[in-house]
Structure formats: structure tokens, C-alpha cells
Specification:
CATH superfamily: Cupredoxins -  blue copper proteins
Number of domains: 1
Shape: globular
Order of helices and strands: HHEEHHH
Distance between the termini: 45 Å
CATH class: Mainly Beta
Strand content: under 5%
Oligomer: single chain
CATH topology: Immunoglobulin-like
Number of helices: 5
CATH architecture: Sandwich
Radius of gyration: 20 Å
Helix content: 55-70%
Strand order of the largest sheet: 1-2
Low-confidence stretches: 17-28
Structural class: mainly alpha
């Protein structure tokens, strides 16, 4: 068997296995992200998505997965779990995100983000949803 045929044979044999592995990791990664977010925040990503809609966060922010949340007044919240800081001033931790959601002016008195009177459990749920996103 020449080298070109041998390489082609390995690709044909390995490619389906690699594709299946990628699919399994992708599926497991989503479930793991959701479970980790719930554990870290003490909230529910599902309830968080509903709370984000109910509090009108989409009036200012783009929030992937939340219907109608595609505004550009505030920052796009996709990938917030990968950011070093919240609002440019707080280290990105679950407790800091909950604090920011509940009382943004207590963190930065000059912020444009309004205090929406978010209840503690709603803030944990919202943080859980935000951390569960890619």
C-alpha cells in the first residue's frame, strides 16, 4: 500500500469517530455548563432566562437565547462568563455578578444601568443563566 492510500484509509477510518467525539463533547459541554452555573450561583438558568425577560434586560442588552433581547444600549452579554471583569470594575465572580444585578449603583455610582429592584433569588437565577451561555 502506498503512502497516499494509507493516509486516505486512516482519514476514512478516523473521521467518523472524531465527528462522533466532537458531538458528544458538545452535548456534554452544554449540560455541564448549565449544571456548573446552577451550582456556582445557587440559581436556575431556566428561571434566569425568564427573569431576564421579565425585568426587561433586553431593553438595553443583547442576551443570546432571550427572545427580543437584542438591544445595544448596554454591552452584549454573550460570553460574560469568560470576561475578567463585570462592568469594568468588579472581578467576575458569581457573587459579584449577583451584586451588580441587584444594585449596580452600589458598585459604580456613575453607571447608566438602573437599579431594577431585582430580588435576590432572581439575581442568582439571572447570573446562572448568563454563566450557562457559551
Amino acid at each position: 500500500m502506498n503512502a497516499r492510500v494509507a493516509r486516505a484509509w486512516w482519514l476514512v477510518c478516523l473521521l467518523p469517530g472524531l465527528l462522533l467525539l466532537a458531538l458528544l463533547v458538545g452535548c456534554d459541554g452544554s449540560a455541564t455548563r448549565t449544571q456548573n452555573a446552577a451550582m456556582l450561583t445557587g440559581g436556575s438558568p431556566e428561571r434566569g432566562r425568564s427573569a431576564i425577560r421579565a425585568y426587561g434586560c433586553g431593553s438595553c442588552h443583547t442576551v443570546p437565547g432571550v427572545r427580543g433581547a437584542n438591544a445595544t444600549v448596554g454591552p452584549n452579554l454573550s460570553g460574560i462568563g469568560h470576561r475578567a471583569y463585570i462592568a469594568g470594575v468588579l472581578p467576575n465572580t458569581p457573587s459579584n455578578l449577583v451584586q451588580w444585578i441587584q444594585a449596580p449603583q452600589n458598585v459604580d455610582s456613575k453607571t447608566a444601568m438602573p437599579n431594577l429592584g431585582v430580588a435576590a433569588q432572581d439575581a442568582r437565577d439571572m447570573a446562572s443563566y448568563l454563566y450557562s451561555m457559551k
